[in-house]
Amino acid sequence: MHELSVCYALIRQVQDIAREHRAVAVTSVKVQIGPLSGVEADLLRQAFPLASAGSVAETAQLVIERLPIRVHCESCGAETAAEVNKLICGACGDWHTRLLSGDEMLLASVELESNAEPGIRNAE
Questions:
Q1: Predicted local distance difference test score (pLDDT) of residue 115
Q2: Phi, psi for 59 (deg, rounded to 5)
Q3: pLDDT tens digits for 5-32?
Q4: Cα dist from 122 to 26, 56, 114, 118, whole Å
Q5: Could you tell me the CATH number of the domain that includes residue 27?
Q6: Burial zone of 19 (CB within 10 Å; 0-12 exposed, 13-18 middle, 19+ buried)
Q7: Is the residue at 20 inside a domain?
């Protein structure tokens, strides 16, 4: 299950962000995952509590947004949705396409909790 090592890397990145912003806790971590990324969302969700244990993100909620597969057709120039193992143009049906999205895993956002007093706004 390589999702555990992916989670450990994700937590390191989240901890760096929290440290940079002097946060005391992370309340939410949002990731975007494409179906061609090689990362199984359900396994990532299971690995997250193990990887985040003892970290600033220990009680954070993991939010996973699934990204679509999009291709650019080299023949007609259209940008369309595609399916796993069927990366053909949705407009003309040609197979000469270039993958635009669907193979990524991105850290989209991190919600932080600071220890600032009420009424005092931290610089972002």
A1: 78
A2: -105, 10
A3: 999 999 999 999 999 999 999 999 999 9
A4: 15, 18, 8, 10
A5: 3.30.2320.50
A6: exposed
A7: yes
Instruction: Assess if residue 52 is contained within a domain.
Output: yes
Does residue 13 form part of some domain?
Answer: yes
Full-model pTM: 0.82
Structural domain range at position 19: 3-68+103-113
Cβ(60)–Cβ(10) below 8 Å: no
| Tens-digit pLDDT profile for residues 53-109 | 999 999 999 999 999 999 999 999 999 999 999 999 999 999 999 999 999 999 999
CB 110: neighbour CB atoms within 10 A?
A: 20
Confidence of residue 117 (pLDDT cuts 50, 70, 90): very low
With CA atoms as reference, report the closest residue to 91 among 82, 103, 100. Answer: 82
Going 14 to 18 to 24 to 25, the CA torsion angle's sign is negative
Note whether residue 76 is domain-resident.
Answer: no
